[in-house]
Write a structure and sequence with these properties.
By secondary structure, the chain is an alpha+beta fold. It is built from five helices and eight strands. 31% of the residues lie in helices and 19% in strands.
């Protein structure tokens, strides 16, 4: 469904070959093919920074800092990590934002508990997560527990959920003005 939406927008998707170079108006692929276009959009996926691998810290296969169930580095328990830059030692997670959000509270609690010498709590990634993609033109693609559908309703649900989530982090104009004074 996602590929179909891209095709309807006239987007050509090429997988399984790396871009060798990108220059004005074109891309040269690793297989020697030259592509021209008005716009080049490169989707490389989500990968942790090479910082961890380069530092000598333990990493998972994807290069993320290798952490235990308490979100501590497996070799240096004084280091904690969360989000897309880590790899859980026992069960690697998909690179979706929902896990970073779910890690927020246990990560904070564990860092404070570590500093205070209290017991740490295990991070539980939870069950399945809701995935809704914005397909453009007010259309969405919904996936949860094997149910997949696209249309306007998934977009409206995504918009509602995203707007509510972002409101939690907005600073009101009144608060902002008082901070500027």
């Amino acid at each position: 469904m996602a590929r179909g939406a891209l095709a309807r927008w006239g987007v050509e998707s090429i997988e399984g070959v790396a871009a060798e170079s990108i220059a004005d108006g074109g891309v040269r692929l690793g297989n020697g093919t030259n592509l021209e276009g008005d716009m080049v959009f490169v989707a490389t996926g989500i990968r942790p920074s090479p910082l961890f691998r380069n530092s000598g810290l333990p990493t998972g296969e994807d290069g993320g800092l290798l952490v235990n169930d308490f979100l501590q580095c497996v070799d240096h328990p004084e280091l904690f990590g969360g989000g897309d830059c880590i790899s859980l030692a026992k069960s690697p997670l998909a690179r979706v934002g929902v896990y970073a959000v779910r890690q927020n509270r246990p990560l904070h609690r564990n860092m404070v508990a570590f500093l205070e010498g209290r017991p740490l709590e295990r991070f539980d990634p939870g069950g399945d997560y809701l995935l809704i993609l914005n397909l453009g033109d007010r259309m969405g693609l919904f996936r949860r527990k094997g149910i997949v559908w696209s249309g306007r309703l998934p977009f409206q649900l995504k918009n509602y959920l995203d707007t509510g989530f972002m409101r939690k982090f907005q600073v009101s104009g009144e608060l902002q003005e008082s901070r500027e004074e």
